[in-house]
TrEMBL record:
UniProt feature, compositional bias: Basic and acidic residues: 661-671
Domain Protein kinase: 2-284
Protein's recorded name: Protein kinase domain-containing protein
Residue span of region Disordered: 620-801
Organism: Linum tenue
SUPFAM superfamilies given in the database record: ARM repeat, Protein kinase-like (PK-like)
Polar residues bias spans: 700-714, 792-801
Amino acid sequence: MLKFLKGVVAGSGTGLKDLPYNIGEPYPSAWGSWTHHRGTSKDDGSPVSIFCLSGSSAQDGHLAAGRNGVKRLRTVRHPNILSFLHSTELETVDGSMSRITIYMVTEPVMPLAEKIKELGLEGMQRDEYYAWGLNQISKAVSFLNNDCKLVHGNVCLTSVVVTPTLDWKLHAFDVLSEFDGNNENQNGPMLQYEWMIGAQYKPMELVKSDWVAIRKSPPWAIDAWGLGCLINELFSGMKLVKTEDLRNTAAIPKSLLHDYQRLLSSMPSRRMNVSKLIENGEYFQNKLVDTIHFMEILTLKDSVEKDTFFRKLPNLAEQLPRQIVLKKLLPLLASSLEFGSAAAPALTALLKMGSWLSAEEYTVKVLPTIVKLFASNDRAIRVSLLQHIDQYGESLTAQLVDEQVYPHVATGFSDTSAFLRELTLKSMLILAPKLSHRTISGSLLKYLSKLQVDEEPAIRTNTTILLGNIASHLNEGTRKRVLINAFTVRALRDTFPPARSAGVMALSATSSYYDATEIATRILPSVVVLIVDPDSDVRAKSFQAVEQFLQIVKQYHEKTSSGDDDTNIGMSSMPGNAGLLGWAMSSLTIKGKPSEQAAPLVPASAAPLASVASNASSLMDTQSTASGHAMSSMDFADQPEPESPTSTDGDGWGEIANGISEDHNGDKDGWDELEPLEEPKPSPALASIQAAQQRPVAQPMSQAKQPATSSRPKTTVKPPRVEDDDLWGSIAAPAPKTGSKPLNAKPSASFDNDDPWAAIAAPAPTTRAKPLSLGRGRGTKTTAPKLGAQRINRTGSSGGI
């Protein structure tokens, strides 16, 4: 018989060493004769609870009841009943004495009395948490009584335990028995182990052992009484000592008092069905219960209900008990986001709740969910991730960013929505420092090269600002290839005044990376022409930059004249360097709002403009100047509006799947193709450079005079300038002189539209005009009559012969 019972209890092994769990410290209290220990799994170290019950012989009544409890707990499954994991029964011999111990392993839980002391809740928050717990226990008791026709027999404070997520669960099934209501006249005991129930918890019919009356009573009669005892112990804060203490109702909430009295009715047939207790709307419907209940049935809600709920959740979470929010709501919210049942506004609530965690807990409970969300196809969630990246970006490790986050974020660079491209660009301010050099050079710079000729002027501007910020994270060779080309060839020649201003300030902020030769031959000639720029802010910044770079060159001259071998001078010796870098940093972290969008620009361009504001001399100040020149220099009024930046059309993050857009051919698109420009020869090169710099001055002036000729259709993906029809046309030449000559060829610039390769057909300016004219002759429609005339001549000559 003993072997059979051991098999029923699922005994495994012959010794405690075979138990796949480690037994830890015990809790101060437990139900009945059991002891409740903390424990961990030997396999993965996960926490568990281990309940132990010992007896001197196999016939011990406590052991028999314990075996019944183990069997019942293993077979009864419910969300509000303790989850069974493992059990074993072990016999130890000490001399002539033998001792039998039952070990039952469950999910990690804590006695309710200990958890209440730990939480220390008071007032309204305490009552709300008690309402949630009683709701769960009532569901468990109702399940046993109404669905399973079982009687627990001893519902009280010690029979309730609490999980790490603060859920209440019912256990202590030692007395659990079937309700035998069919044999009403039978006098035998219905509860085999009723002697284990404390006298203070027994209803009057059980005290009298009136089994006939018990069988005639409804199945919930005994457990309804026990639930009343639990309510009394909860609100009084003391363990029930005698039945008369149940009459003390001073601590019972008024909204629950009537139901409490019905649970403890002296007549078993009139006791309240536990399932009816849950319907008490006045007590059980509070902020905490409603919030948790909504989260648990989230999949049944429609999108409007979800959106409304999650928009209110951040403010609601501040009113709920902090520990319950972090241990119960936060895991529910993270799970719903991971499995796609939560709407995008839920991310705001998740990040707010996560801010209340310690750094270690945040890494464990919040970051894994965020990393998984980057792979989501929901565009709204991805936009929300980028908008709040400043809240969690610093917590991401370099390995996570480089391997798991960036590959998904990078698809936004080529998205059809300008708003998403803008957010992706801004996110790089936080993510780029965590990327490897290989990722920056092989991927990021290619995307930035494309964005610097984006159709949105503000995106081009912020791309220049970002390059100035991440310059310190580029290796020396990449800086040589990228920075000067990006700032002078593109930014300083942009038709958008804030973009030119950003280019000047980016050059100043990164001056420590340029030697004196580069400053004298490439930077100063490009900047000095902007001192007569139509925009006053560009002129002011250009004057400052010219003075700064002239001072650097003067220092170089003084050191070389004095014979000092250390000619490595730069911005590090200039005062105000921190201010320039500080401008670039702050300009990209300021978020633009739709209400801040500028009038002459489309919404996609206006929000980024707010992000180029500086501490010392804000680019936002140039917006008024830019808007003043908008009608005269860029003629934005004639442009059709592009698609809304908030459009959700598309497939999530962008149109690229494996790398850059298909518009770029070859594996070396972007600034990786740029080789260091050849140093010009003494006098002829200087003359060519001077001629090349006429373009930034001439172009804005001509645009001011002829606004119609410089209008740029924003609905196309092509760059705004004619000579930039080819993405790389403006920087393909190896030296500045080769890319600057066509700037003076204004009459021929209008013919470049038909030949996208005309701008880079030959490196020398003198050889470029000839292919343009030839291409123009071949490409016109008048060539057909010429070909026809030649055929007529041939026919006539052959006919003459």
